[in-house]
Amino acid sequence: MQPVRLIGIGLACVLLAACDEKAVVLPPQQHVQAIRASSAEYQPRAEITGEVKARIQSNLSFRVSGRVIERFVDVSSPVHAGDILARLDDSEQRADVEVARAGLQSAQAIARQKALTFERYEALLHSRSISQATFDEADKDLRTAQASLEAAEVALGTAEDALSYTKLKADADGIITARDIEVGRVVSAAQPAFTLAHNGARDAVFNVFEAFFIEGQPLPGVDVAPVADRAPETRATVREVSPFIDTRTGTIRIKVALPDVAQWPLGTPVVGKFRSPPREGIVLPASAIASAKGEPAVWLVAPGSSSVSLRKIAVARYRDSDLIASGGIAPQDLIVTEGGKFLKEGQTVAWEDR
Question: In this predicted structure, what is the pLDDT of residue 3?
Answer without folding.
Answer: 46
